[in-house]
Amino acid sequence: MRRDKVPIQRQQLLLTGSIPRALLSLAVPIILANLLQTGYQLTDAFWVGRLGASAVASISVSMPVTFLVIALGSGLAMAGATLSAQYMGAGRQDMVNHVAAQTMLMVVLTSVLFGGLGYFLAPQLLHLLGVAPDVFANALGFLRVSFVGIIFVFTYAMFQALMRGVGQTRVPLLIVAGTVLLNFLLDPLLIFGWGPIPGYGVMGAALATLTTQALAAIAGVFIFLRGRHGIHLQWRGFLPDWEYIKRAFFLGIPGSLELSTRALGLMVMSFLVASFGTLTIAAYGVGSNILQVVTIPVMGLSMAVSTLVGQNMGAGNVDRAGQAARLGAVISFVLLTVAGIVAWFAAPLLIAFFVPRDADVIREGAKFLRVMCLAWGCIGVQLCIVAAFRASGNMLMAMVIAMVSQWMVQFPLAYVLGKHTELHEQGLWWSFPVTNVIVALVSLAWFARGSWKRTRLTEEDAQITQVTDNAYTEEGR
């Protein structure tokens, strides 16, 4: 009888081996996969850009909508990854398989619901966003194809999350590499057409992504059914277990609210920036793109921290889980601080890479970058600490930190400094480092209290409603 678990040596590394080595072995494939994921956006932007400004605008107005929908469903991925990691650490392979099957079932049902609603409500959503008439048709086609593909996006995202939970990060990397390469080939084919294949314009980019995401999702399910990489699904495992579904739902709600809060916060911040004019919008856009690229390595490291904390919490190695979180936070702080120093000196060159022939944008973008990079190290601290909270099952803590960061600190600060002081757009820029420092300090203080260590999701009598109630009572909320 085949044993459905990861190699013993790898499991020993995660639970008893060198913590730096364990973090590195988990983080490197995740970082590479995250870098490759940007290939989807870069490829779409490259080919769609050849269709003109209205085509680019149609994708730009559609992306926040789909991002928000994906954020709403991402709490299930967090719940599945957390539970699978803790059960793997506890040596409960049967529960790892059960969690994976039930989580995949929930993902399919949720994605069908969200995708169906999004497909039929797409015209109303675009009207609500005030999309211009010349952009509307392309945006509608792109958005509707994107909503059809939600089921594949959710399924593969869940596959990645569950594989990270059991410590397998290399297989998703290989799948991402293959799909990014295929997307690079399909984009021009479906956008412009070739021979008997018609060109679909902007919708062709969405069709290319739909095709590659479908193949990735199918590959993930096939790997689970084969059962050779730590998780073994069987068809009977998909019979609904309503007690588990209820448990995962309550565990995942704070995660969904957290990501949705961040998504809405970014949209509101964009509206505030837009009120300062085109130059400020351009500087903000370029600076934000640089920040996204810079944080890819520490995002991968924070995901590695999540896996290591989750498995060790499940195994009862609470002190080791804390050591992994602290080490990840220190490494992330150092990496992003060094990156910030480099960015401060090279700011004009970095901005000019994106807008080489616009001196005004280079000047304003360099100001934004030099202010923002002062506290990049604090972003790394926050990411790793929040990852530890999620992995321990304390999704509520992560949600509260997100809400405090977006709605109680950054946006009010940006509004007051930008609209009611002589700093004007410089006030927007200063809201970034100030917020990062405050949130990092709050996260560290909450982490140091140690209340997150007392959550054990793998106990037989653990109920998610009790976990949530205890968290609310414990934090006085």
Kindly name the structural category.
mainly alpha
CA radius of gyration is 22 Å
Poorly predicted ranges: 1-6, 460-477
User: Tell me, what's the shape?
Assistant: globular
How many individual helices?
A: 17
- What is the H/E string? HHHHHHHHHHHHHHHHH
| Terminal-residue CA separation | 50 Å
Number of domains: 2
The count of DSSP E runs of length 2 or more, i.e. the number of strands, is 0
Main beta-sheet strand count, sense and barrel state: none
How much of the sequence lies in strands comes to under 5%
Question: What do the pLDDT scores average to?
Answer: 83
The share of residues in helices is over 70%
Compose a concise summary of this entry:
The chain crosses the membrane at residues 12-36, 56-78, 99-121, 141-159, 171-194, 200-225, 263-284, 290-309, 330-356, 368-389, 396-417, 429-448. The chain contains 17 helices and no strands.
Task: Give an overview of the whole structure.
The chain is mainly alpha-helical. It folds into 2 domains: 1-240, no CATH class; 254-477, no CATH class. 81% of the residues lie in helices and 0% in strands. Helix 5 runs parallel beside helix 8 (202-226) and helix 10 crosses helix 12 (318-354). The chain is globular and about 60 Å long.
